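Section 3.1: Structural characterization of target chains.
Under the original work plan, the team committed to producing a structural model for every single-chain target entering the pipeline before any wet-lab resources were allocated. The record below documents one such target. The sequence was received from the expression subgroup and is listed exactly as submitted; it comprises 415 residues.
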Amino acid sequence: MSITEINTWQSSFNHNGVSHRVSTSENGQYILVVCSWRQWHLDSESLTGYENQVFYSDDSGVTFQNYKQKFGSFDLSVVTYGKYTKIPSGVRVSKSGQYQAVIINDQSNNFKANIFVSDDYGANFTLLTQNGQHSSRATSNFAMSEPVEGITGSFPCYISFVIDNGSIWVYNPNTNTFSQTAGIGSVLSNDIDMSDDGSTIIVSRRNQSGLFSTDFGATFSVIPHLSQYGGATAISDDGNQMILVDYNEAGSSSRKLIYSSDKGQNWVQNTITTNSHIFDIDMSESKIVLVGSNGVIFSSTDGQTFTEETLGTTGSLFAVTHYNTDKFYFVSSPPTTDTTMTLYSLNYGSGGSSQQQQEATPTIVYNTAPILKRVISTIENESSVTFLIRLDHSKANSYLVQFLDEDSMISQPFF
């Protein structure tokens, strides 16, 4: 296991009360991060007092762009009567990176949820829909499936979100319509996640038991063992595994974990011992990772026994997402009152060591021309290395790429 600090960049406010969301493509190249002021009760006045931002990377986190003016007329930096009225609260990236989505809540229009989508790897975003249901709070998050084969002329992914103190909504790409789930009343939600095919959805609720659906959101069932304080949720790609952790506002020294390995047919309850709040969960094929306050990280291979990792992390770890097979990105805000964010990579692969080291797939990006750029990456404990090189001939007439190991140097020009 190894941990790598990839990049630290400037945000708009310090860590107290901040919530980040992060999502990435399967190879870790395309990353979206949202940084917003998000309390667990989503207080609208606190939400609008800070500039909420969306950051984008297409080079595995080496650099980030501020996407505050990327969403049509929704300029995230605009202040109206002393308030930031456009509030992003979630981001999603498909495995290929081609399809991406951001949800932005419009405080000036009764916190209506606006879904902006991209089908060109995050280069451009267009408005998919504005939900018509009013709320006094922003949505907590949203979920997105992988693209459905054969869809043309509309965004090809299922999307689901909760209007706070309102309803659960699901976008069906086959019909290009949103539908509202009936019969469950008003939902106060903290998190939501969805399987790759869109059929299985899990929702945490603040003041009631969590919910899950296995029929694309047509109906929902109650998750047992936890009647309130539902916090972070996660679901496996195939929808078989689901997990819900309590936020525990009472501040006890343990956290409940509710887990199913059979698509919700059976649920088991476990606990972890920690005074920290758990802010986010994600799972790969072989690992479940939880992150939270005070730099806490827990992991599990079976959803029932969790181990606290000793990695020296501090501050608040707000968001985690998996990529490749055994790797996770997570976003940290420091314990002090500065305004930086840091992206880390956590590698559970067998070749990793306990020391901080460079990722095995470095990314070299040329943004301007003419330019001479040298990037040195030390790679250890790897039996093989894969390089992905994209050459933009509009930026330079020629490139010279050199690979150097301990024994030899191979040099080849590209024209």
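Residues 44-47 form the longest helix (4 residues).
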